[in-house]
Amino acid sequence: MNKKETGSYYTPSYLASFISKRVLSHFEGRKRMSILEPSVGDGAFIFELEKAKDININLTALDINEVELKTASKKWSKKTASFIKTDFLEFSTDKQFSAVVGNPPYVKKNILTSRQIELSKEIHSSEKLTEASVKNIWTTFLVKSNTILAKNGVLAFVLPSELLQVKFADEIREYLKKQFERIEIFTFNDLMFECKGQDTIVLFAYKKSDDKGEYFANISSKEILEQNSFVLKNNELLVTSKVKWTHHFLTSDELIFIDKLKKELKTVNDYSESRPGIVTAANKFFIINKETESQYKLSKYTKPIIQKGQFVNGSVVFNDSDFKQLEDDNLPSRLLQLNEDDRVSNDLRNYLKQGESSNIPERYKCKIRNKWYVIPNISVKPDAIFFKRSHLYPKLLKNNSNAFVTDSAYKISMRDSYDLNSFIYSFYNTLTLLLSELDGRYYGGGVLELIPSEFKKLPIPYIEINQSEFEKFTTYFENKSNIEQILNQNDFNVLNSTLGINEENIKRLTEIRNKLKKKRLRT
Fold first, then answer.
1. What is the pLDDT of residue 192?
2. Are 70 and 76 in contact (CB under 8 A)?
3. How confident is the model at residue 445 (pLDDT cuts 50, 70, 90)?
4. Which domain holds residue 75?
5. Type II methyltransferase M.TaqI-like domain: from which residue to which, for each copy (predicted)?
6. CATH code at 187?
7. Does one domain contain both 235 and 289?
8. Structurally, how many domains does the chain consist of?
9. Of 67, 124, 273, 327, which has the most beta carbons under 10 Å away?
10. Longest CA pairwise span in the chain (Å)
């Protein structure tokens, strides 16, 4: 099994050491305790726990992989341990553990077996959690671990930052708040694992504590952990509000300031309709370059398409000339759009055979089609495009070409009485870009994403501009060195006109946005 299937990402020794020492310090003075590790992996935690001298640890270690379990068992020299080959979801015990520690697997629901999904639903249901909270196996590890903790027990897990920011984790966060008197969240400036794109946190949850509440610390280097030189801060407003816990470094004053402005604004959904772009189910096969189109004589079956946001860097309007540049650069820019009644030529048949040899017809979204190669719901080309993922700033641009767009973007059309040019101009202000950071979620490598519901709810201070002003804006945008130049030009015009925000408060918004952006980009 590969790492994507097993969800196995191993814990660096310094992090395993920090977590183990912190858990054991909670039980200082105790002579004995019981610890469960539900997914031992390479045994990083076992290696660290084995070093404990002043406390007798009764260890129970589980793993679904027998080879890894044997490797881990060699790191424990004491007699007080049980190493059991099993899936934690299947594990049954009457024992209540002093602590549950580890780095549970990260496996999405669509990769789990039907048995694992069934068990996950049962575990969540027994704790009065909905089926919606069963999205990834780490959530079930978290829930089940809580059920086998002693009344004064401690839970310590390495987890994906999804816990702090995605919608399905709202319920899990509320569950944790009810089950534990004290919660500590450690976020990091560096990716902690070898897996690209997986941002991680560390959670400590205490059943009993004299200092109750939710506490946060951001760690900028491993030396800070090793020296215990961090400061855990309580952020009560963050926890009681709907702001994502990733933004724990914002102050109460900043959160109140933003929320007050936000309440005065209409949202993207008030001004426009937005829908996801075309779902091909296999972009590498269905979106081809001119060279492949020519090789297989497919031009009569193709339509122009923008595959991803990085193909439109630097502009606020996408024209036919921009599309021609994609073609000239031999980038994938032609959508293979076949109809049910199309006659399949020999050349087309040869191309389709390539897809069949790559098992594309077996992909779920292809499998449920009448013909696996006929993409449904092509609809019409969008008036404007918002790319759901971005790096330095979110991208909204007018589509003056004949190009369609993939589901890497949302297709925008304006509601009656609102103007597209004005909408795009108004979007580029510090407050809206700040709220994109606040309401979206981010991933390793600094990728910012707004899912459809987050984009629709994004507040915009809308002002009307004329065609001449939009043309000037377009030219200035294309010649900018960075997005800050656009914000400096637009902010007073947009924010002062709509919300009466003065220069001092625009500067304050800029500082908050920079703080959020730096955390995401790890600068």
1. 53
2. no
3. confident
4. 3-249
5. 54-190
6. 3.40.50.150
7. no
8. 2
9. 124
10. 80
